[in-house]
Known about the structure:
The chain is α/β, with parallel strands linked by helices. The protein is 40% helix and 13% strand. The strands form 2 sheets. Strands 2-1-3-5-4 form a 5-stranded parallel β-sheet, sandwiched between helices. The longest helix is centred in the last third of the chain and has 17 residues, at 264-280. The chain starts with 28 loop residues before the first helix and ends with a helix.
Amino acid sequence: AADVLTADHQQVILPDLNAGCSMADMADIDSVEEAWEALGEHVDLSRVIPITYMNSAADLKAFVGRNHGAVCTSSNARAVLEWAFAKGDKVLFFPDQHLGRNTGFQMGYDESHMRVWNPRKELGGLTPADCTEATFLLWKGHCSVHQRFTTQHVSDFRAAHPEGIVIAHPECSREVCEASDQVGSTEFILNAVAAAPAGAVIGVATEIHMVNRMENETPDKTVVSIDPLICPCSTMFRIDAPHLCWVLEELVAGRVVNKVSVDADDAEWARVALQRMLDIT
């Protein structure tokens, strides 16, 4: 099935065929600790800086806090990685491999400096030499929405809109980012669309609710997703107006629903990792 454009270009959203596995689910504390222990048999862990993307569980943030690492977002990933390489020789970057790879390329590194760590394989599917030589150890994880975008989507958009602009989020594959005109974080994409000239047709490789928001906020431009089969991020969309209203009504009634509790030690070390990020940026 394909998406539909109404008179105001608003795109119809179809069900998420990738529902059920968020990016945060791509790495869990047991797998990361096992990877860390396995790495320690071949490299000096004091020279390995763990970096976790903001889209990760509290216990993973705590893990990087305890091990002299930091949290990053798509906006500050480069600054955090530069900080890491001032402290060590290599990074273990999780849970999204694409953000780590694309940021590394922006910094002047290439594939020869990178290895993908597959947590389902012994030693991540790598050799001891790989572990020693790699500058970037990229966790085999991804965002299910950004993983969908392909170079064919870019080619099809360009065929339909020869003067169009393609902007990709760095959670997309390296190939998609290379084929795009601009690559950047959520904030970058918002600013790039705002700065585009009136009448521009802009194809964006990111989550559809954000694409529709930009389309609504820039009526002098046409902003569309380059993926013809629109799949929203089911994890992000769990936070919707009806559920927010329900939680607020319950609080007014004196009832706390859907309470999230974090182990006190994890909470403390997660704060350390987050504070390092804030100090860096």
